[in-house]
Amino acid sequence: MTKERKLVLDDVRSLRHRAADVIRDAILSGELAPNERLVESDIASEMNISRGTVRESLRMLEQDGLVISYPHRETVVLAITPDEVKELLFPVRFAVEQYAFKKALPKLDEKDFEALQELVESMQVACEKNDVKSVVDLDMEFHQTIIRVADEHHCSQIWSSITHRIRNYLYRTTPKHEDLSHVAKEHWDLLADL
Length: 194
Known about the structure:
Elements: H1 2-29, E1 37-38, H2 40-47, H3 51-63, E2 67-70, E3 74-77, H4 82-104, H5 110-128, H6 132-150, H7 153-173, H8 181-193
Helix pairs in contact: 1-3, 2-3, 4-6, 4-7, 5-6, 5-8, 6-7
């Protein structure tokens, strides 16, 4: 009986997370625009899930900083201003990454270096293909790996609170025709400093 109940709970959790992933991807890809209203009943109908599951998914996305909910009114896709990014999110990101590098450095092993090198190699290929989404994802994964190795709870918590908004901003603002090779080079330089 307990085992069945656990499976049901896992299935419910999985559905909520899958729904959040679908909505998150739609926000990050620009399919759902900043300030666009998210109607629970419409999303539930479109995804063939319950409104409660949609509501839970939207709460998760609110914690990620991608939507904002106004109680008894509406939930909307949260807009990100260039000022917010330049004056708040990027400085916080830089401070978190700098701290994580310092803490991770003595803990990095050969396996970690190999994983980081593979990420940068993939990033270089994505740069050559001018694949903005992959470059951004690999950039974030590179720094997430360092933060994981640093194993500093508050550092990880702060990173998690800003990463989706930074990713969202970079997806939307990096020109598709821009030469992205500098991104891979910066990460090769970071690896050389480790």
